Amino acid sequence: MMQESGTETKSNGSAIQNGASSANHLLECSLREVRSNGETPSVEVSAADLTHLQQQQAFQVARQLLYQQQQASGLKSPKRNDKPAALQAPVSVAMMSPQVITPQQMQQILQQQVLTPQQLQVLLQQQQALMLQQQQLQEFYKKQQEQLQLQLLQQQHAGKQPKEQVVTQQLAFQQQLLQMQQLQQQHLLNLQRQGLLSIQPGQPTLPLQPLPQGMIPAELQQLWKEVTGAHTAEETANNNHSTLDLSTTCVTSSAPSKTSLLINAHASTNGQLSIGTLKRESLSHEEQTHSHPLYGHGVCKWPGCEAICEDFHSFLKHLNNEHALDDRSTAQCRVQMQVVQQLELQLSKDKERLQAMMTHLHVKSTEPKATPQPLNLVSNVTLSKTASEASPQSLPHTPTTPTTPITPVTHGPSVITTTSIHNVGPIRRRYSDKYNVPISSDIAQNQEFYKNAEVRPPFTYASLIRQAILESPEKQLTLNEIYNWFTRMFAYFRRNAATWKNAVRHNLSLHKCFVRVENVKGAVWTVDEQEFQKRRPQKISGNPSLIKNIQTSHAYCTPLNAALQASMAENSIPLYTTASMGNPTLSNLAIAMREELNGVMEHANSNGSDSSPGRSPMQALHHVHVKEEPLDPDENEGPLSLVTTANHSPDFDPDRDYEDEPVNEDME
DNA sequence: TCTGACGTAAACATTT
DNA sequence: TAAATGTTTACGTCAG
């Protein structure tokens, strides 16, 4: 087999003078070899097959050029037998036994060649033209490969094509291959004419001259790689008597070792695998198994490269060819190192900035915590409370407009802390209405998200039930309607129905705020807002300043948004853009505020309260809040409300629960 | 450590 | 009678 290859090289070199015709001949031989396998030509000719055919032909062309050079060169051409064994061996061995000579050895051999000053001059003069040609050639190759790939896919997907059609398509492939081969060979001839391919006799490997300072043209490297790679292909083909088996090298092409290539090629051949299927599987397999930092989405990610590589094998080839170890690559690597350093520097600066911001806002830093506290407004309340205790003036206590108090929206840890996004399971602490979370606005603004993502809404059952009832036109719902609201509004409640329905019933019965009313169509549930508000100021009522600060810190923010983002992050859900799901935290703050105000007014009106018409919403809120505290005699003492009121700005009462507190509370 | 809110589960009664 | 609805109790977790 190996001897066969050698003799073939000799015969080809002597018999074929014209490169183009030789390429055609080689291609035809290859295809004949395919047909001579005794089997019907497989429909599933993969792109890898074509690629390897191309490589093989490139190798053949190189050898032909070598012999042409040998015959025409005026350089001293010692007899092949006169060459030292070390130099002679690669000639035959490299072509026939790729596992014997490695690319490194090949490069060493290449480096042993001496470039004459004349050749160097020619090189320097024509290098620019060469690069241009190289680009053109590469573009053409890409186009041709794309076309081939396209046709291949079409062929693969046409499962029941008649054989005539298959043959026709294969002929088309051959023609395209010929086209590519001709161009390739033409380019090689150009190189030769330009002195870039000064093939010295006795060194029939591609005479790539190592240029000083890493000036080896990429094309020459590619040619060299192709030659060495084609050895494998040729060897495999020869060993298996089937060029289609070349595709098997593609299957295992991820392995850099040529030996492994061969071994796998043999194994695959023996396995009688369908090439097309193999190809498809290999592609997906490669894409799944080969994760290279420099390869993604079929594109080489080498800085400034972005070359399209159809598969991992192509990428590896491209990587080896285009980004070999030379000065250019080294320089690019240095640049990339600087980029990384700059990014790291920027990151550290931003970290410092974040730390300073959080320090300024008296929020606990992103120090790692043992227990994640994400999506948890309660923990944020705690943080805010601590902060307010430390420095109450650090938080805007008296915002004058709804849009100004954006500053306290820095519940950084909820969003930023990595430890805060691991709470996947049931969330114990929910954003109860007592924490001033505008549930209605949040649900409305994140409606799509809740409907689509199975994220548990960070509200208590009671809050959700209340919201469902309040959203109804008549402020009353049957149990089944409440169920429907849950499932309609939240994807989370579309499963485990028994559990959450039981919880809903439990809450309806447990909380006094939910009143069951006998209706003509059955029992409906309504919300007793007074009772509901009684639940509100619970433990933290003992410290009015805390109440104020806490509610201030939360009156304008929607930690739910942070929770949502955290949930989305932890669930790998694409973050909804502001446009798609809204950003209640910042941009829609005023809207949320307005909504809350409207809700308050609505409650007031519905309950027959006489919120003074001349009073601004803020004043109304303030008024409501002042009157609110005594409404809870169980938990709030009279002086408490006074103190709370005294600490509040007359313009705006930030600790007002806009969502929950009806205005009528102070009208009793 | 205690306490209350909350979630969950379950048993049971009542209604449809 | 079954299912839905409603009530109650118990228990665990969490955070104040």
Automatic annotation (TrEMBL):
Entries under Pfam families matching the protein: Forkhead (PF00250), FOXP-CC (PF16159)
GO MF terms held by the record: DNA-binding transcription repressor activity, RNA polymerase II-specific; RNA polymerase II cis-regulatory region sequence-specific DNA binding; zinc ion binding
Bias (Acidic residues) ranges: 656-668
Keyword line: DNA-binding, Metal-binding, Nucleus, Repressor, Transcription, Transcription regulation, Zinc, Zinc-finger
Hydrolase in keyword set: no
InterPro entries: FH_FOXP1_P2, Fork_head_dom, FOXP, FOXP-CC, TF_fork_head_CS_2, WH-like_DNA-bd_sf, WH_DNA-bd_sf
Subcellular compartments: Nucleus
UniProt region (Disordered), positions on chain: 1-21, 386-415, 625-668
Biased segments, Polar residues type: 386-395
DNA-binding span(s): 456-530
Gene Ontology cellular component annotations, sorted alphabetically: nucleus
Domain Fork-head: 456-530
Biased composition (Low complexity): 396-413
Listed CDD domains: FH_FOXP2 (cd20065)
Its biological purpose: Transcriptional repressor.
Name of the molecule in the record: Forkhead box protein P1 isoform X3
Native source species: Geotrypetes seraphini
Lineage start: Eukaryota, Metazoa, Chordata, Craniata, Vertebrata
